[in-house]
UniProtKB/TrEMBL annotation:
Signal peptide: none annotated. It comes from the Bacteria. This is Cof subfamily protein (Haloacid dehalogenase superfamily). It holds the Pfam family Hydrolase_3.
Length: 267
């Protein structure tokens, strides 16, 4: 991004980045987003969250258009409440990945995001209050023919970093493996599906170059976007791998770190 040129697109993660620790958007952050929009920038949420967990936040923030959800597997139209595109994990590949996970991490529980809901096995004990209305318990996530937007694996004995290290070589070429900070939680998508690959598709459609993008993130699933953007900022509270790989820094999510950068860029 050349000096004096305003970014044409703001790509921001939500949890641990745009949202504070209370999972809220502060007035300062809302105002900074509005200033960026007034200057002509596109605002795109780029998140691990499913569509159902994004729409209300976008309305609160005054953000319209589309959001990239489920780590890049979904492009979601905020106004229409419609999934525009979805990039699914093949069921056969997902089953092979699940067997590799079970061999490397005995006792794991599995769940899948379908785009509109969650199917969870008994061993997958992660129950978010906001998910309960959309969650169905199943004996196996592979029993039906529901679309697999994201395969989720939960361990009660290993950290997410340990889980990635244990399985990434075993599933190479079959799936993308990452995490977004959930305790003992892996997030698995189709090969090539990342936040950055989907953002690149949007940018090409809109005629926006990577150098015209400013991005913000805090977790390993944000690394691809931070590398893709002309200016990628790690939050002060970011995961150690993100801090090590990202040159630019901003304040923490509890200090309105995204707003601090946007205010300098857009006034």
């Amino acid at each position: 991004m050349s000096a004096g040129t305003l970014p044409r697109l703001v790509a921001t993660d939500l949890d641990g980045t745009l949202l504070n620790s209370s999972r809220a958007i502060t007035p300062r952050t809302r105002q900074a987003l509005q200033a960026a929009r007034a200057a002509g920038a596109e605002i795109v949420f780029v998140t691990a969250r499913p569509p159902r967990a994004v729409r209300a936040l976008a309305a609160e923030a005054g953000v319209t258009g589309v959001a990239i959800c489920s780590n890049g597997a979904i492009v979601y139209d905020l106004a229409a409440d419609e999934i525009v595109t979805s990039r699914l994990l093949d069921r056969t590949a997902a089953n092979t990945v699940a067997q590799a996970l079970a061999a490397a991490l005995p006792g794991i529980g599995l769940a899948i995001e379908t785009g509109r809901g969650v199917l969870a096995e008994v061993a997958y004990t992660r129950r978010l209050v906001e998910d309960l209305a959309y969650l169905r318990e199943v004996s196996s996530v592979f029993d039906g023919d529901d679309p697999i937007v994201k395969l989720l694996a939960q361990s009660h004995t290993s950290t997410a970093d340990e889980m990635v290290a244990a399985v990434v070589a075993r599933v190479e070429g079959l799936a993308e493996v990452t995490h977004s900070g959930g305790t003992g939680l892996l997030e698995i998508s189709a090969p090539g599906v990342t936040k950055a690959s989907t953002l690149d598709v949007l940018c090409r459609e809109w005629g926006i170059a990577p150098g015209e993008v400013v991005a913000f993130g805090d977790m390993p699933n944000d690394l691809a976007v931070l590398s893709y953007a002309g200016a990628g900022y790690a939050m002060a509270n970011a995961h150690h791998l993100v801090l090590a790989a990202t040159e630019r820094r901003t304040l923490s999510n509890d200090e309105d770190g995204v707003a601090a950068v946007l205010e300098k860029l857009y006034g």
